[in-house]
């Protein structure tokens, strides 16, 4: 690909990336999801966060005029593939919106069946906090050119919502595989995300959400939690590991005995 063509391709990817991130903003979840609503919403947030991380790692998340890092990665041969994949993500949202419209327009629907969840009132405090932090991180990675304001729409059946997340996850896998040189940067971005969401209750919840969906973030969460785990340091003064035991512990200790029975 010639430099001029590459530049056009980079701008196209940046625009498609921006539009894909924006699409998440308009998805709502029907009230008939029940308790699965909160988990489903966070999984959707996780898919968006992972896509936004990919965009930042290859440099398409800033101003359109500044998107030149794809050239530095020497990945011109994959630009067209990335365009196609991002286009497929947009098609997923369009298809899901079409499913939503068909559900609403089907005869015999009660008002109760068409009610949607409100993130401000229907989420538990810890879930709402995590949702807002993941959303804010993703939006910050968009460039300044956003889609015009669209009407929100809802998925009312769990099978369609689950399929949407699975398909997005698969396509983001493909995007990440296209640019292996950017994966080290994605690890650093995961660490920054953890630092941003590092409330005590957030990490275990986030780890459960991204399991099987975002391996890199899951690994980073495990590392962060291990660093925060209580540490027990014991020094033995004397021969044959016997004598005075000096203990320095941070955190709590349970199910531990001292003396001959320890």
Account of the 3D structure:
This protein has helices spanning 3-23, 36-58, 69-72, 79-105, 119-122, 125-140, 158-178, 183-196, 202-210, 215-228; strands at 27-29, 153-155, 231-237, 244-250. The chain is mainly α and 262 residues long. Helix 2 packs parallel to helix 6, helix 4 (79-105) packs antiparallel against helix 7 (158-178) and helix 9 packs antiparallel against helix 10 (215-228). It is globular and about 55 Å long. The model is unreliable at 231-262 (pLDDT under 50).
Summary, kept brief:
This protein has 262 residues and is mainly alpha-helical. It is built from ten helices and four strands, in the order αβαααααβααααββ.
- The succession of helices and strands, N to C, reads HEHHHHHEHHHHEE
Structural class by sheet pairing and helices = mainly alpha
The number of E-state strands comes to: 4
Order of strands across the widest beta sheet?
1-2
Please give the largest β-sheet. Answer: 2 strands, parallel
> What fraction of residues sit in β-strands?
5-15%
Distance between the termini: 69 Å
Number of helices: 10
Radius of gyration: 23 Å
What is the share of helical residues? Answer: 55-70%
Residue runs with pLDDT of under 50 for 5 or more positions: 231-262
Q: Could you say which overall geometry the principal axes of the C-alpha atoms support?
A: globular
């Amino acid at each position: 690909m010639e430099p001029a063509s590459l530049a056009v391709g980079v701008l196209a990817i940046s625009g498609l990336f921006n539009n894909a991130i924006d699409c998440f903003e308009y998805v709502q979840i029907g009230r008939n999801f029940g308790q699965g609503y909160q988990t489903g919403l966070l999984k959707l947030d996780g898919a968006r966060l992972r896509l936004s991380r990919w965009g930042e790692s290859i440099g398409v998340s800033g101003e359109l005029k500044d998107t030149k890092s794809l050239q530095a990665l020497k990945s011109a041969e994959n630009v067209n593939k990335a365009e196609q994949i991002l286009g497929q993500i947009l098609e997923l949202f369009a298809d899901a919106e079409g499913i939503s419209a068909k559900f609403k327009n089907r005869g015999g629907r009660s008002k109760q069946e068409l009610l949607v969840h409100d993130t401000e009132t229907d989420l538990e405090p810890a879930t709402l906090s995590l949702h807002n932090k993941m959303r804010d991180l993703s939006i910050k990675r968009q460039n300044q050119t956003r889609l015009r304001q669209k009407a929100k729409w809802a998925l009312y059946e769990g099978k369609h919502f689950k399929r949407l997340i699975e398909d997005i996850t698969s396509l983001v896998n493909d995007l990440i595989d296209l640019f292996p040189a950017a994966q080290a940067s994605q690890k650093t971005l995961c660490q920054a995300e953890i630092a941003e969401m590092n409330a005590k209750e957030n990490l275990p919840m986030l780890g459960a959400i991204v399991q099987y969906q975002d391996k890199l973030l899951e690994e980073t969460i495990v590392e962060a939690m291990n660093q925060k785990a209580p540490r027990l340091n014991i020094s033995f003064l004397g021969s044959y590991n016997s004598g005075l035991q000096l203990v320095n512990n941070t955190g709590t200790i349970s199910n531990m005995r001292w003396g001959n029975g320890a």
